Amino acid sequence: MLISQVIGTTVSTIKEPTLEGCKLLILRQTDVDGEPFGKPYVAVDTLDAGIGDLVLTAHGSSGRQTSLTQNRPVDAVIMAVIDHLSVLGEVTYRKE
Amino acid sequence: MLISQVIGTTVSTIKEPTLEGCKLLILRQTDVDGEPFGKPYVAVDTLDAGIGDLVLTAHGSSGRQTSLTQNRPVDAVIMAVIDHLSVLGEVTYRKE
Amino acid sequence: MLISQVIGTTVSTIKEPTLEGCKLLILRQTDVDGEPFGKPYVAVDTLDAGIGDLVLTAHGSSGRQTSLTQNRPVDAVIMAVIDHLSVLGEVTYRKE
Amino acid sequence: MLISQVIGTTVSTIKEPTLEGCKLLILRQTDVDGEPFGKPYVAVDTLDAGIGDLVLTAHGSSGRQTSLTQNRPVDAVIMAVIDHLSVLGEVTYRKE
Amino acid sequence: MLISQVIGTTVSTIKEPTLEGCKLLILRQTDVDGEPFGKPYVAVDTLDAGIGDLVLTAHGSSGRQTSLTQNRPVDAVIMAVIDHLSVLGEVTYRKE
């Protein structure tokens, strides 16, 4: 899983019919302190995550192992909203 | 999913028999403002996307979760045409 | 799928028994004009592609969606030989 | 599989229901001498690995081939704790 | 598939029970002349490959398409030992 920050939203009228009702959010991977880096990617949100939240995303076929994403053409899903992260015993991120 | 721009087309006479009728487009990944970067890749188009459109592509086995791509040797599919993208509450891309 | 050029061949006596009869070619990814870049990789050829040909390769489990590669430990297959590529309405590559 | 070091822990209240009871650890890939490099990622721990341990992680659908991770939206699992690594006949890492 | 050189071995006492009896080797990807580059990774060996051998490795779910790796949490397998490689008609590597 990747540690990522939710940074935005996407709107699409023309899409695969099975995606109706899937919320597709824009994310960027972050470091353990929540600092984003790298290029944006898009994942399905099943947990009502908000802009700015740090989350974990599962990729590939693992992104389809939820009731909402099963058998759908999606390759990334938010599977947890992060409360806090600790590295070597020290808290590096805490949700406000 | 990757945010990408459709930039071109491919023509192949010799191909896997199951690919007959699959439209294969050339894309490049873009940033949230639609600026392309990186190397070209090819995805199946099931949505009649046009050159210049910003789209979302699903990769790996997720690219086969459409009626057109099921059981075919393809690893990327266009699953949505993007109308607009917003980052931190600001619109960064809007389809013309 | 990746746009790639066939650059070479591999010979292996010791291999997984199910690979008997699989032609394994060496490729390098190319740009839309057929210029190769990056490191070599190996894919199964089911289309009798020749050295120098530009082809499309499907990766991961999608590489096993052909009658020749099904249930075999291979993660890349040549699924089309490219006749020509066009970008923004201009031909960037044409097979000789 | 990747050689990685366990560096931290994650806590999430809001998560996919099927993840209840999954321990999610933060890791960084290492070289053969255990020196970490690159960006952090998160994997399920089924082996009670400790902070500082060198482990092997399996990714993608292979991360779901354990009794704990089966059918869950996780794409990486710790499948072995490393005792020692040898390169060209010389021990490069030994667990303390 | 990646062209890689076997460079070392791993020993693990604590591991997924289904991995009992799986030989896990350390590899580095190579160029067509057998020159290694990049970071080490680990693959299951089913072919009794030796240190220094050039091999082909299949990744992801394709790494589980052998009788030894089926249903196990492994994401890379050695599926061929390379005898020789040719690029543009010239031999670039030959096993000694």
Helical content of chain A, roughly?
Answer: under 10%
Under the CATH scheme, the architecture of chain A is Beta Barrel
Most residues in contact: chain pair: A-B, 30 and 34 residues
Q: Helix and strand string of chain A, N-terminal first?
A: EEEEEEE
What proportion of the residues of chain A form beta strands (DSSP E)?
A: 35-45%
Fold and architecture overview:
5 copies of one chain form a homopentamer. Chain A is mostly beta strands and 96 residues long. Chain A has one domain: OB fold (Dihydrolipoamide Acetyltransferase, E2P), CATH 2.40.50.220. The first copy, chain A, is 0% helix and 45% strand. Chain A is built from no helices and 7 strands. The first copy, chain A, has strands at 2-11, 23-29, 41-45, 54-59, 76-81, 84-87, 90-94. In chain A, the strands form 2 sheets. The first copy, chain A, has a 5-stranded mixed beta barrel. A two-stranded antiparallel ribbon of chain A has the order 6-7. Chain A is elongated. The model of chain A has no long low-confidence stretch (mean pLDDT 97). The interface between A and B is medium-sized, with 30 and 34 residues.
